[in-house]
Amino acid sequence: MSENDFNSDLLEEDDSGGSLTASGIAEYIRFNCCPRFFKLKFEGKEIKKRVWPEAFKPISPLLYGTGKALEEKKVAELKEKAAEYLDFTKYDPKQFGKSGWEKAVDSMNNLHYVIEAQIAGGENADGRPVLLYQVPMKGLIGVWDVKGIADLIAIWPLKGGKVKVRIFELKSSWKEQTAHRIQVAIYALLLSQELGALSSRVELEGGVINRETSLESLASESLPKFKLSPLIQDVQRLLAINGELNRIRQTPIKR
Questions:
Q1: Which DSSP symbol is given to 211?
Q2: H or E element, residue 206
Q3: Strand partners, 149
Q4: What pTM value is reported for the model?
């Protein structure tokens, strides 16, 4: 996704209650955790139009097109070097109307199956990963239902019946941002909840691929990586029952 892909709503338009999108949470982070920004997003379309319409306009088609073209180029580079490439766009919620996010269950079940198969298959001698592209994910974090689409997931089989799984965001920016990492941490949390008994066999990691990332090698040590645990803790605190987003939700907006 491009660096401008933060235009996604915090909530899906047809949702009610406490359902957030991963890109929307990242957008809130990018806006310096502004309570008013979150509240306006959360209150729905009508209040957006009245109070702060300019902040909720979609991104320029030109900017989106530039970011999408870069993403496709990066994916093409990765695809030709992978041990296997699996395209999860068949689970894209936008293809299935209001019930589209139900397909995220199928997506995550298939992701679980792929990880399990890689564990059973043993170490790959040439060190090339299996790549999964555009993986819809959904689950509960704290008191919020959260959904989103992980840009890229790489799986490297290891010795001893284990695998290394690294979740990547693809960005057209020149520099990695905290908001990008937050998105990855959200997907890591959702996946860790899905793994269940497999958790002890999975080394879960995160990374951001941007304009400057070299894709000469798909060895795990050659691709971007950051420490997940502090970001995961931040996300858990943010979405907890006593977390900042729940506090903002329960506070009336000042007009």
A1: T
A2: strand 202-209
A3: 136
A4: 0.86
